[in-house]
Amino acid sequence: MASLRQRRLAGDVALNWLYQDRYLGWLALVFASDRPEEVDRQITHWLQALQQTTPEQQQHYYQLSRRRFQALSPLDQLRQRAFGFAPGAPPAGFADFCAALQAAPSVSLACQTVSPWEPVATQGFSLPLSRWRRRPESDPALAFAFYPQAAGDLVAKCPEKAAPLLHLPLPEEPPRLLLRPPFYCSPDQAEGLARGEQLRPLLAALRHAGGHGEWHLFDGSWQLTLQLPEPGRRPEAILQAILRQLALPVASLTPPPESIAIRHLMAQLPERLGTSGHQKGWLAALAGGSAEDAQWVARQLSLITAPVNPPMPAPAPCRRGVERLVYPGGDTALLVFIPLPDGASLAALRLLAQHCEPLFFQRLRVEQQIGYVVSCRYQRVADRDGLLMALQSPDRRAGELLRCGKDFLRQLAPMDEATFRPLQQRLAAQNRASRPPEARALSALRQEYGLPELTPQAVDALRVAEVADLAREMTRRRRRWQVLFTTGD
C-alpha cells in the first residue's frame, strides 16, 4: 500500500476471505481508488514480489498478524477463530501459495459512475453492468519491497535537553506516550485526516520495530498514542521522525460522507463547540515505563519546535445556538448538547445522565415512538462535558423533536434517596474499573490543567440535592445549549 499511495493509485485496501473450506477459498482484494485499471495491473507484480520474500520476512509478518489478533477484543478473537481466520501455525510453503494465487482464475470488478449498459438481475438486485475494456498496459511495474528491505534511511539525533513530560508510573506496563494538541484547540476533521495520512508510513515503521501507534479521534479531539518497544529496541529515529512530522503543515482532506443523519451531526459537533482561537504546542504524557524511559522520551520531545505542555489560557465559553446542517435523505435528526455549567460537579452530571438515559428512551422511543435513534447520555466532546440528546425520526419535524427533549427535562421528577444511592454506587464502580493506560494519561493531563475529571472522592461526596440543582440549572439555561439539526428532503 505504501507504493500505491506514493503513486496516488489507491488510498485503502481490504483483504477478505469471502469463503473458505478444506478445498476452496474465495479471496477478495478491495481497493479504494479512482484509478482501478492501473491498480489492477499492479496486483500480478505484487504477487510476484510476495513470492520472492524470505523466510525471515514471512516470519516477521506472521508475528505482526499475531500481535494484531491479540489486540482484538475477546469477542472479536472468538469470531475470528469460529470462521477460521485466526493466525495458525507459522507460514510454510508461502511461495507455492503465491504461485497458486497467480494461477487461480480471477474476476475484476470496478464500481464507477458510468453510462449503464445491460441491467443484470442477480440475487434480487438489478445492476447496470458494462464490460471492462482494458487498455494496453503501459505503466511500469512498481518496485514492491518488504520489511526489512523497505525500512527507510532514518537518522537519529542525540538530544541533550529534555522537554516537560507528565509521567504516570504504572507497574509492569510498557511505556505509552500520549500526544495531543492543547485542550480546546484540536484541529478540524479535514486537517486531522490529513495529519493521519502524513503519519501513516512512520506508524507502519514503528509497528515493524515492535511498537504501535495510532492517530485518531477520541471524544471529538485528535490525539496520537504511541506504544514504545522494549528498552533494548528503542526506535529513536522513528520517534524523532514522527515528532518532526507533527510540526509540518498539512493540506486538508475531504472527510468521507456519513451514511446516517445523526452520525453526520455528531461528526460536525466538535467544530461547532470550538472557538476560533488556537494555541500552538502539544500536550504530552507517558503512562507506564520506568523513570529512565520517561527521561529518554522527554529528550526526544525536546526536538518538537512547538512548546510542550505549555500553560493554558482561560478557555473561551462553549459556543451555543441553533444551526441547521444540510444532509441528503428523508429523515430529520436533532442533536442537543447541554454543557456542564462552570464550577458544577462532573460527578453530578454523570449521575444525572445515568438517571435520564433509561427514562428518556422509555418515554420517547417506547411510549411516543419518536423514531429509531433515541438517546440521552453523558458525552465529552472536544474537551467539554455535557448532556447529549440525540433523536432521528422519519416523520417528525425538528421543532417537534426539540420540544420533546425540552418537555422531558421539564417534567423530570425530582430524584429521591432511594433512586440516588444505586446510581451513586454504580458510578463509583465505573470509576474504579480498569482503564487503558492512554485513558489514564489523558485523565492525568486534564487534572494537571484543572479540567473537570471524575474522582472517587467527588463521587463519594455527591449528594442528591446537588444533582437536583444541576438538573434545574441545565434545563432553565437553554440559551447555553448547542442545537444542530437536519431536515428531510
TrEMBL record:
Residues 351-433 form the Coenzyme PQQ synthesis protein F-like C-terminal lobe domain. Keywords: Metal-binding. Residues 1-105 form the Coenzyme PQQ synthesis protein F N-terminal lobe domain. One of its GO terms (biological process) is proteolysis. It comes from Klebsiella pneumoniae subsp. pneumoniae. InterPro entries: Metalloenz_LuxS/M16, PQQ_synth_PqqF, PqqF-like_C_4, PqqF_N_2. This is Coenzyme PQQ biosynthesis protein PqqF. GO terms for molecular function: metalloendopeptidase activity; zinc ion binding. Pfam families: PQQ_syn_pqqF_N_2, PqqF-like_C_4. The keyword Ion transport does not apply. It comes from the Bacteria.
